[in-house]
Amino acid sequence: MKLEDNTTHHDNPRLIHINDPKKTCDNSQFSGNEIRTSKYTLLNFLPKNLFIQFHRVAYLYFLAIAALNQLPPLAVFGRTVSLFPLLFVLTVTAVKDGYEDWRRHRSDRNENNREALVLQSDEFRPKRWKMIQAGEVLKISSDEAIPCDMVLLGTSDPSGIAYLQTMNLDGESNLKTRYARQETNKLFLEGTMISGIITCEQPNRNIYEFMANMELNGHCLPLSQSNIILRGCQLKNTEWVVGVVVYAGQDTKAMLNSAMSPSKRSRLETYMNRETFWLSVFLLIMCLVVGLGMGLWLNRHKSQLDTLPYYRKVYFQKGKDGKKYKYYGIPMETFFSFLSSIIVFQIMIPISLYITMELVRLGQSYFMIGDRHMYDSVSNSRFQCRSLNINEDLGQIRYILSDKTGTLTENKMEFKKASIWGKSYGDSKAGGSREIDAGVEEAMVSVRKWKLKSEITPDPELIKLSYKDLHGEERIAAYDFFLTLAACNTVIPILTGSPSISGSSLRDGHTSIEYQGESPDEQALVAAASTYGYTLFERTSGHIVIDANGDKLRLDVLGLHEFDSVRKRMSVVIRFPNGSVKVLVKGADTSMFSILKKDLPCDDRMRHVTQVHLNDYSSEGLRTLVVAARGLNGELLEEWQQMYEDACTSLVDRVVKLRQAAALIECNLTLLGATAIEDRLQEGVPEAIESLRQAGIKVWVLTGDKQETAISIGLSCRLLTADMHQIVINGNSEHECRKLLCDAKAKYHVNSASCFDDITNLKRKTELNFLEMASQKKSSNMSPQITGEEDRPTFGPLALIIDGNSLLFNLATLCMVVLCCRVAPLQKAGIVDMIKSRTDDLTLAIGDGANDVSMIQMADVGVGICGQEGRQAVMASDFAMGQFRFLKRLLLVHGHWNYQRLGYLILYNFYRNAVFVLMLFWYILCTAFSTTSALTDWSSVFYSVIYTSVPTVVVGILDKDLSHKTLLKYPKLYEAGHRQESYNMSLFWITMVDTLWQSLVLFYVPLFTYRESTIDIWSMGSLWTIAVVILVNVHLAMDIQRWVFVTHAAIWGSIVVTYGCMMVLDSIPVFPNYGTIYHLVKSPVYWITILLITVIGLLPRFIFKVCHQIFWPSDIQIAREAEILRKRRPFFGSNADQDSS
Amino acid sequence: MSSDDGSSKKVSKKPRYSRFTQQELPACKPILTPALVIGILMCLGIIFIPIGLLALSASENVVEVVDRYDDVCIPSTDQKVGFIKDPATNKTCIRTFTIPKKMRKPVYVYYQLDNFYQNHRRYVKSRSDRQLWNPKAEYSTSLCDPEGQTGDGKPIVPCGLIAWSLFNDTYSLSKNDAALQINKKDIAWRSDRTHKFSPNVYPKNFQNGTLIGGGKLDENIPLSQQEDLMVWMRTSALPTFRKLYGKIETDLEANEKITVTIQNNYNTYSFNGKKKLVISTATWIGGKNDFIGKMYMAVGGTSIVLGVIFSLLYVFKPRPLGDPSYLSWNKNPALD
């Protein structure tokens, strides 16, 4: 897929002639800017909607059954009756689809009819959005929405900057900067018309990448992501921009991205399909019995068939004498009888269950979204259900894989400490600012004119250092250090409240700066630099301006190597006003120490000291970055410049080429120091993690941080506790890791024999022990809880990871908690994949950033946190919420409820349909296998659609075994989901046995009651209809745990509705069953038979339930009793008090 | 794409509080306390046993005389079908029996057929209800084949196999040589007489084919008065069934000798069906059937026994309800 895309880029680039839409669109068919998100038009609605609907297997099954019934020899039901279920679901779905589509039509129309200024015959004139074509030049004013994807040609700003809000596209609220190329911008400001050709990629959905070239007056200018503005964004803080349309309408990235993510299927549904297979087997057996029975019966009565009054296969009228009537020979009759029994028994396969489940999940989501305890007031966001298929999986999660930054922590960075030139600052405890002496304070004045949004308390010593006159190695290092912090980033300063930004008015009053950027770390660093007197206040694509202790320093940016996860560093090449060129680098320590200068012994010392500081910082849970710099001289600079230029204009492999260019200069660096940033834990995280751990969920934290940082964070969020044994595996080679793993296993009694089976078996046993003993809380000093810390070598051979997995996994599954440090985004997904491939347990991945997307999509359940790092994670997730702590409620409360409800719902639906089908089956055995149904056709069809459907949905949505208070108080109740208590094979078989019993009762009680009597077939059918409806509803009523008025209405209402329907059906004289019900209700036998059926049918179940509760009470049962009795007791108690007083 | 513009941002999205959305509606949460379980079982016993007794006694009070005559009212064992099919043979047959107990009026006379699948799909569907009510719909015979129309295309009214196979044995009863009047009025359902079988539809072309299935109908009497047909066309649910033949409006005393003159016309010999004549009284429970009574007694008895067992269980091996020490993680002591 990817490969194909690439090739098309080369072979078939998209050519845009600027301001020449005709030429652009003549050569190739580019789509116009009219968008259509709607699926249908009035004309094609019916066929297309039907076509889409019949993609579902369930509907095809309905269709096949209905089609079978249309064959004359098989016409079991009347024509209309047999089509009813199909038509019913089709109509309901079609109406829903139609309504949604109508709304889409309306919004499309609004979008398409908006107007924008388009350059038409040398003048900007308004034009409707839908008329805009690729190649046209548009002018957008401030606060206007962008109608299509455009390459910027010019902006109102002389430096060519434009600010964009990309909220609609990616949900990030900060402003993004986009640049017009200086060359075109100049031309525009001069008022020259531009004509040129843009060569760009074919439309694709990647909103973070764009590669193109512009041919302008013979020059080839590279265009990148920073030169394009996308549909759906809004122009901000910029008076106007002019751009040329490159992608319009359906080709825009916004439209290409609006596709839904692939849906996941829940675990319960997978199990359900397994049981559906069994039901199909039952169905087949029953149909075979009927078919064979028919064959044998016909064979036995072969000679009589011609004249048998109730069969009569031959005409005796003149003319047709001897002609067969609806008789096709015994083998065919057997086959037909087989087919028609499939029609009669069709609801054995609970197809309607899929529709019921969808409805139930919809209702469950409604309650999850509406839960006030999962509303985050900080981000003003409710809980979101983005996927409607996996609600019940939330009740069975065994592994939580969590990102750290932004998920466990707030991702609000605060600059805490720094190590500069081998000296650590920021260690002094609170109140540092009080000690600032007069001189410093004076110097501070100049800084003060920049008002920052977030203020930090500076370290006085460091302040002194930063204001000292420029001499001494230490001072120069500090200068470079802060310069790097201020310059080496992609943060955009936004100035507000100042009269002017221009340099001359620098000293006028206070200006408040807001730093906007994609990375909170960078924002924190820039803010810190500003506090210490190095304020970044202007940034264009070509230069940055820094106010360094009051001096305005204009630095030309020659090149910027952005952060990527392979290099794990970022660098910027700047030219100082005096002409010297420096490369400033910041990055993760592992990636930095290897590229430092190693010639001098003092470098070594520095490195060592900094390393010690870094370890200190990270053990306090701070995020660290190493800062380094290097001067560039002529030759190297030239070489790099060429490579960089080349890489930037390249359409192919730009990333790789840029990386090569970066490698050229990112070496032999001089270490300047290190920074430490604090990222505070989110509210309620320790409590949530503790509860989740008690619930038997294994929490794995995957972080890019270093081992020490990870451990300290782990301790502070109670992931790790003092009584845990920590296993640290941090070998640098395959062998070392293997050895550590084996040692750890030996130590904790895991047999590391080569035989994998042994390990697995043992693992199971020991795991159980561990889990049980874990509950006795530190009683033994040899607590067997294990904490595994795994440190994967970041650049280790792939073989290690794969090879080590089997060993690693055995150990890791034993551990309650696993911390994985130094994990790259793809490795996160790899870990999820490893768990998924090795166990049947469900995994949940939670994260907030773009780097968690792959993990979220890979896991069984993906949860996104709407945080600081944008919304990619949310877009990819199944559920999204504002805070990590909601996870506790989501899993322990809603997950538990959803699982209990859906598990019961499935079993009940199996039972409900099977008991009905079996009842029909027994009767067919009494009708010479002729697939007669005593029930009227309509009642047979209404049974699953009207008579019994509503209560299942209502109970599936509203039933609740335990209150949320109890569930949160005893997190261990969640383990019911792990043990699959609500739905498993044995429950299925028990239900089926119960079903068999109830169907026999249903059939035989009326049979014996009315044996040798005048009962007619419709009275019998009427009795059976009402009996089965009452039976299944009372069965449901017996299992309901929480009766609210809706439940009452649904259950008893269903019975009333059934009576109503039957009365209507029996009041139509043209039906043979006319008047039946009126006749029946007068007979007392009818009523006592119904009572008898209900009681005999349900008595065994009742007894079984009571015995189960006496002898093997489940945890849920006990907790439920405790909860309810606790509520009653005070009530009784107060009564008693009143009596006594 | 939903737009989150500035105005909506200020509006709190906090879900509105209602007891419904927070799933905190006042609810009844039943739990199976020992008292409840024992109460339910005892109640079942207390309700079911009296009903059972009532039903049993009602069934006991029914006096029923059953006489199988198909095997006796036929001369030779080999030519049964030939005999019954031959219109010329004399099929009169006389049976006598004594009344065992006093039978209070009304005494019902039924015929009972056996092994006759009136519930066979081919049979049940072979009728036209439109034709029975609407004189203009006499041609709607599509479902009635092979007894829909005559050879020359005339509609048969009433059409279909059910009507065609109308039962046509007749009984005349006499007590001590005095004829007992059998009232054949009002033996069909009222709804059938008034809304299903029309007073304006008369039998036509009925039983004219070469194969005679059963009884003939008087073409001068409208369907609304053909009550035997109505009874017959309420097809039975089971292959063994009774149908009402008529009512005797006088009491029959014990030990009275009843003589029945049977016209044994109906052919059940071709499919080995039995024919029985049943004379029976009726109570609220219907005919003689002690199944309901016995089942009610059994269920009631079982419930009480179970109730006692559970009571004993709760006395000797009580489990305190809602005791957290029974929770699985509190129950299992440390293994080492």
Automatic annotation (TrEMBL), chain A:
Kindly name one Pfam family recorded for this protein. PhoLip_ATPase_C
Q: What EC designation does it have?
A: 7.6.2.1
Q: Which residues cross the membrane?
A: 50-68, 277-298, 335-355, 914-935, 941-962, 983-1005, 1017-1036, 1043-1065, 1085-1104
Which residues of this UniProt protein bind ATP?
A: 403-405, 522, 563, 586, 623, 703-705, 822, 828, 851-852
Domain P-type ATPase N-terminal, by residue range, is 16-81
Bilayer topology reads:
Multi-pass membrane protein
Q: Which reaction does it catalyse?
A: ATP + H2O + phospholipidSide 1 = ADP + phosphate + phospholipidSide 2
Task: Identify which cofactors the protein needs according to its UniProt entry.
Answer: Mg(2+)
Localization: Membrane
Q: What is its main location?
A: membrane
Does this entry carry the keyword Membrane? yes
The residues that the entry says bind Mg(2+) are: 403, 405, 848, 852
- Identify which top EC class this enzyme belongs to: translocase
Q: Does the keyword Repressor apply?
A: no
Under InterPro entries, the record lists: ATPase_P-typ_cyto_dom_N, ATPase_P-typ_P_site, ATPase_P-typ_TM_dom_sf, ATPase_P-typ_transduc_dom_A_sf, HAD-like_sf, HAD_sf, P-type_ATPase_IV, P-type_ATPase_N
> What positions constitute the catalytic site?
403
CDD domains xrefs: P-type_ATPase_APLT_Dnf-like
Q: Which GO terms describe its cellular component?
A: membrane
- Annotated P-type ATPase C-terminal domain residues: 874-1114
Write down the superkingdom of origin. Eukaryota
- Give the record's family classification: Belongs to the cation transport ATPase (P-type) (TC 3.A.3) family. Type IV subfamily.
| Protein name, per record | Phospholipid-transporting ATPase
TrEMBL record, chain B:
Record keywords: Coiled coil included?
A: no
InterPro entries noted in UniProt: CDC50/LEM3_fam
Q: Which residues cross the membrane?
A: 31-56, 295-316
For whether the record's keyword set contains Lyase, the answer is: no
Subcellular location(s) per record = Membrane
Q: Give the UniProt keywords, A-Z.
A: Membrane, Transmembrane, Transmembrane helix
A Gene Ontology cellular component where this protein is annotated is: membrane
Family in the record: Belongs to the CDC50/LEM3 family.
Q: Which named protein is this? A: ALA-interacting subunit
